[in-house]
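User: Modeling request: complex.
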Amino acid sequence: MARSIKKGPYVADHLIKKVERMDQTGQKRPIKTWARSSMILPEFVGHTFSIHTGKTFQSVFVTENMVGHRLGEFAPTRTFRRHGSATDKTVSLK
Amino acid sequence: MPRIFGIDIPGRKRVEIALRYIYGIGPAKALELCEKARIPIGKKADDLTDDETARIAHLLQTEYRTEGDLRREVSQNIRRLISINSYRGLRHRRGLPVRGQRTSTNARTRKGPRKTVGAVRGKEARAAAKQGS
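Assistant: Request completed. Predicted assembly structure:
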């Protein structure tokens, strides 16, 4: 179910403020954020975000194509390391 | 067999059914087309006059995205998702379901035929398996 157009995109307020302030001062630092559900606005293009993965932060450079997606889509929360394959760890266990 | 819009050759069926053989035309759009082209529903595709076929072809070209164009659009959308490294792109790349379905069981359409993976037992076998992969 898509979000109602009437409401406009959901973006965490602090992100908008931070981006505005950085655009005014002209500096570019990665923005550390936990707001994975925030939509990427056109203003965010060219900024780097450190997006929380639940454990660490994944830095993502926002490009034009990413507008309209959510920040969390670019920072996977799960790691999958193959079934049944012989890794160094399993081999050395025996 | 009448040829509508280049290569598509719908069979000896009612127009609104035959039109569905075109990629991008389903039940709803088939009926819509018949209405717009002023073709009585229930007429067999074989009985279409040249004029009627021309009207359908014209409508398809101007108002609908079908066949190659539609296929191209779909694959471009997927390529975009992959190129921006989004989660959905990742699922496409891995050939797994994209919309959050379970993968513990089912998901066979995306994953293809079952591949049995057994545990590799024994030290030598593991070392061999590691060399192989």
